[in-house]
Amino acid sequence: QWKQLENLYFREKKFAVEVHDPRRISVSRRTFGQSGLVVQTWYANTSLIKSIWVMAISQHQFYLDRKQSKAKIPSARSLDDIAMDLTEMGTPKVSKLVTLEAKNQLIMASNGSLISSGSQDSEVSEEQKKEKIMELKKKEKLLQEKLLQKVEELKKICLREAELTGKMPKEYPLGAGEEPPQVRRRVGTAFKLDDNLLPSEEDPTLQDLESNFIIHQKLVEAAKKLASEPDLCKNVKKKRKQEYADAVKKLQEIENSINEYRIKCGKKPTQKSTLALPGERIP
Predict the structure, then answer these.
(1) Rounded (10°) CA dihedral 161, 162, 168, 174
(2) Of 24, 31, 114, 200, which is the most exposed, with the fewest CB atoms less than 10 Å away?
């Protein structure tokens, strides 16, 4: 009977009806005590289970509306009057049931459940609902903060990739109406000196001159890369060409110092700068 109904709910492919049966006394996990609660369960596909659940709670709401109407009727009335009252009072409540927002009902997002009005678990369920909502809000806030952090990391990675490739990746996160930033490709000018490149001369003075030449040779190569970088404004391009010319001139001066020392020590002069920069005009 409807008055014995405790709850109607579905979860995925399961539809269950909880009723009070005074003939069966068992220990309930809800009340942590003796209870005559009996659960009847059926299984089917999700859409069918949900349809059955919607029809069941609508039928139960009809029972509650009819019970409420009877309580308000002081004397016997005709069936037509009762039907009219039920239609006027039941229509808005049934529409609320269909939209899963009926009064005195608790409907979860992942499943459907009806807790009857006047149920002994109503107050407990309301407290559980409030605690669950607060817990979900905290989780949502933590997830939003983590998402913002990851978005910033992704922006940094995309900017770094754009500096290396000269093209902004499509994964760069953009807000509504936001334009991607303009990034100029970074020219790689870093270099590493290999210990094997350094000459092993017994004369420490000549050793220092040769080491200085090798280091400055790398600086000339870096200055050349910067000077040949595309998409530069006129002033910057002119300045970098001048810096490159000065670096080449300095390299030649170091080689001249080496050759002067080698001649002084009775050794043959070299032409390292000419070999290192073929086709370049050496001042």
Answers:
(1) 70
(2) 200
226, containing H or E segment: helix 204-227
Whether 143 shows a pLDDT value over 90: the answer reads yes
pLDDT of residue 136: 92
Query: Chain centroid to CA 264: how far?
Result: 70
Joined together, the tokens standing for residue 12 give 């995925």
Per CATH, the number for 1-22+35-68 is 2.30.29.30
Cβ atoms of residues 53 and 15 within 8 Å: yes
Compute the distance between CA of residue 165 and CA of residue 65 in angstroms, rounded to an integer: 70
Integer Cα distance of 238 and 261 in angstroms: 35
Look up residue 58 and give its two tokens.
Answer: 């609508």
Could you tell me the pTM of the whole model? Answer: 0.31
Measured distance CA(237)–CA(163) in Å, rounded = 19
Residue 175 CA, distance from chain mean position: 14
**End-to-end C-alpha distance for the chain, whole angstroms:** 108
Per-domain boundaries in the chain: 1-22+35-68, 125-185, 202-263
